[in-house]
Design goal:
The protein has about 290 residues and is α+β, with helices and mostly antiparallel strands. Helices cover about 30% and strands about 20% of the residues. The chain has a single domain, classed as Alpha-Beta Complex (Creatine Amidinohydrolase), CATH 3.90.230.10.
Length: about 290
């Protein structure tokens, strides 16, 4: 990010000149650049007011997923899930962020078995033994929050259950790797070290993202190991971690609907997602 001049208005929106506001803190931050970190655009740092708004949105998203967990079962269609989510968000004063987002036609993503993500709800009937990811993004008072959960329908295979559990643990380890003034690449390293031991692959074409003021913001979050330290994690940054773990190969392809992403080899895939906040002392799971 191009730094303001001393007499410019500060990037934080305080209305003060830069030299009277964030210049000293920023000088300290930019020392990390010499150590190999990528300095993010400082407008990714959320204000306390924005964080409070994102937390309220996150509480709505959490309640939506709880509701789905209470009702989901074999014999329902994914379109029924869409109706539940749409009605619940609307009745609670929110907006479903996915609806009409770049042409996406529904209020939630429902991804079954070999579908990695972005599955479009339709008349598909959920069967016993299926695993399904339900991905919800709510807008409340202009603030976004994004989370997803896996649901095991009835009695699934041992392989399916192990994959779902591993994807959840991969998310936990990724979040555990988030440290204030640490590097974002540590997230992917932690996830890949774990998945490699189990023989699972990690989808590389998709990742997590900043969120809160918009649906998708900086930074992009890779869930696999990369060289270097990556983006410097600063208190006030809000982003998702959402590793997509495949039983087979990591390659994926997009179906003709231009949204649904599936494993190329037809193997099972599982994903859990949280929106997290970097704090001065660690990390907060918003939803």
């Amino acid at each position: 990010m191009k730094r303001p001049n001393r007499n410019d208005l500060c990037w934080c929106g305080s209305g003060k000149k830069y030299k009277k506001c964030h210049i000293e803190l920023d000088n300290a931050i930019y020392k990390y650049e010499e150590q190999g970190y990528v300095i993010p655009s400082l407008n990714v740092i959320k204000s306390e007011k924005q964080i409070q708004g994102i937390r309220k949105s996150g509480e709505l998203t959490r309640r939506v997923l709880d509701m789905v967990g209470d009702k989901i079962k074999a014999g329902i269609t994914t379109d029924e899930i869409n109706t539940w989510v749409s009605e619940y968000i609307t009745e609670n004063g929110g907006i479903a962020a996915t609806l009409n987002y770049n042409g996406f036609p529904k209020s939630v993503c429902t991804s079954i078995n070999n579908v990695i993500c972005h599955g479009i709800p339709d008349d598909t009937v959920i069967k016993a033994g299926d695993i399904i990811n339900v991905d919800v993004t709510s807008i409340l008072d202009g603030y976004y929050s994004d989370a997803s959960r896996m649901f095991i329908i009835g009695e699934a295979s041992e392989a399916a259950i192990k994959l779902v559990e591993a994807a959840k643990e991969a998310l936990r380890l990724g979040i555990e790797a988030v440290k204030p003034y640490g590097g974002l690449h540590a997230v992917g390293v932690a996830i890949q070290e774990y998945c490699d031991k189990l023989g699972y692959s990690i989808v590389k074409d998709l990742g997590g993202h900043g969120v809160g003021i918009k649906f998708h913001e900086e930074p992009h979050v890779d869930h696999f190991a990369k060289k270097g330290k990556g983006v410097l994690l600063l208190p006030g940054m809000v982003f998702t971690i959402e590793p997509m773990i495949n039983e087979g190969d990591y390659h994926c392809e997009v179906l003709d609907d231009e949204w649904t992403v599936v494993t190329r080899d037809g193997s099972l895939s599982a994903q859990w997602e949280h929106t997290i906040l970097v704090t001065e002392t660690g990390v907060e799971i918003i939803v």
